[in-house]
Amino acid sequence: MTTVLLVIDSFGIGALPDASKYGDSGANTAAHICGIIKGEKWPALRNMGLGNASEILGNPLPGVKPAKEPTALFGVMNEKSPGKDTTTGHWEMAGLILDKPFHVFPPAYPSFPEELLKAFVEETGCGGILGNKSASGTAIIDELGEEHLKTGYPICYTSADSVFQIACHREKYPIEELYRLCEAARRLCDPLAIGRVIARPFDGKPGAFFRTPERHDFSIALPGKTVMDVLQKKGVQTVAVGKIGSIFLEQGIDVSYHDAGNPACLARTVNILKEKSDKDRFIFVNLVDTDMIYGHRRDVEGYYQAVDNIDSRLPKILSLLEEGDRLVITGDHGCDPAYRGTDHTREYVPVLYQIKGQPGRSVGIRATFADLAATIAESYGAKMGTGKGFFG
After folding, report:
1. Contact 22, 7 (CB under 8 A)
2. Which among 237, 293, 244, 238 has a CA at the least distance from the CA of 265?
3. Residue 253 Cα distances to 97, 240, 244, 275, angstroms
4. What is the pLDDT of residue 324?
5. Which residue, among 8, 32, 14, has the nearest Cα to 301 in the 3D structure?
6. For 62-99, how does the pLDDT look when each residue is reduced to its tens digit (9 = 90+)?
7. Three-class SS of residue 85?
8. How far apart are the C-alpha atoms of 379 and 376, rounded to whole Å?
9. Can you give the pLDDT at residue 136?
10. What is the C-alpha to C-alpha distance for residues 272 and 146, in angstroms, rounded to an integer?
11. Residue 139 is inside which H or E element, if any?
């Protein structure tokens, strides 16, 4: 049996009950996009039951009507862990529920503790840093890229997430050198409980800088076993595509493809499925563009088109699955492009769990993303210590 789990990064479907604690009351990534972009949309997701899932929360999606006979089990999932970031969301859907949030640096200059920066400069020999504040990744390289080229100082910045990000021009720091800086920062950030250190390479000239695709996430160590560890013990081949391997530090992963961008990750998924296997497989895919390129930049049209491009590839993916195989679609948090600010939003995420050849039905509002991990484990005859499966 093969299961393909596609995470549409930041594809939220309505503010969680505790969203006000995060300043996110009224956020709804999917509904706001559907309300702004007119006409019928996303036919494959509609057929699976995306509109049905949203109506569970009382939030109709304009242009995505509930399917009369949805092909997938459909519902929405509540994030039980505190936070609204990539690591927290992915870990929880893999069965790791956090009891306390990762540390977040303050947004205003200076964001980083003096002791951290002193140790970073001494260990790396970089001479100093630029930035030291919360910022949009594209904005800060426009602001500080020229100075970075003159001084050679890496641009270090954060966001509303638990991140220490390092942006360097490829002429000043080849990719491996940038990764070396990030490895040093990762060690120094571990005692501070920082979720991710992120390499942000860029290229170009002043006034025309652009980020390059060698981004790499250096995650904090996992606090326990995930569904992938459990599946490995059952002899299931675990395959990661996109930034999944980085998020999970390659733990529990047999084969890891670090493709960058949705087109490459979707193409990789199709190619994996074309290679028929006599092994049971679990293929875990992150589709980052919705979040990184469009959500944070508050680009409603771009976000809609990115989802539309994913939707257009789903029939091909389904055609490569055998009877009884699974295609699962979900998100890891929200990033409402029609909301204020540029940060993630604390939202429910949809879950569409299609078993090829079987009809769909509602699985309601799930108490935790970990219910998905429990469901996937149970489908292979395994058990998780967290979550409740859809068939329990």
Report:
1. no
2. 244
3. 19, 7, 9, 18
4. 97
5. 32
6. 999 999 999 999 999 999 999 999 999 999 999 999 99
7. coil
8. 5
9. 87
10. 42
11. helix 137-151
The conformation of residue 187, written as its DSSP 8-state character, comes to: H
* Cβ within 8 Å of residue 27, ≥6 positions away: 12, 14, 15, 19, 334, 336, 339, 345, 346, 347
pLDDT at 191: 96
Residue 347 exposure: Cα atoms within 13 Å on the Cβ side: 31
For domain 114-219, which architecture applies? 2-Layer Sandwich (3.30)
Domain ranges of the chain: 2-98+224-379, 114-219
pLDDT at 160: 80
- What whole-number distance in Å separates Cα of residue 327 and Cα of residue 281? 12
| Domain 2-98+224-379, classified CATH 3.40.720.10, yes or no | yes
Give 3-state DSSP helix, strand, coil % of the chain, rounded to 5.
Answer: 35, 20, 45
The Cα–Cα gap between 320 and 323 comes to: 10
Say whether 122 sits in a helix, a strand or coil: helix
State residue 177's pLDDT score.
97
* Bridge-based pairing state of the strands 237-241 and 216-219: unpaired
Q: How many CB atoms lie within 10 A of CB 19?
A: 21
Residues 60, 30 contacting (CB under 8 angstroms):
no
Q: What is the pLDDT of residue 342?
A: 85
Model confidence, pTM: 0.90
- The Cα–Cα gap between 73 and 53 comes to 9
110 φ/ψ angles, rounded to the nearest 5 degrees: -90, 125
Ranges of residues in the chain whose predicted pLDDT is under 50: none
Find all residues with CB under 8 Å of 204, minimum gap 6, and list them. 145, 210
Q: Structure tokens of 390?
A: 């859809």
Q: Is the peptide bond before 110 cis (omega within 30 degrees of 0)?
A: yes
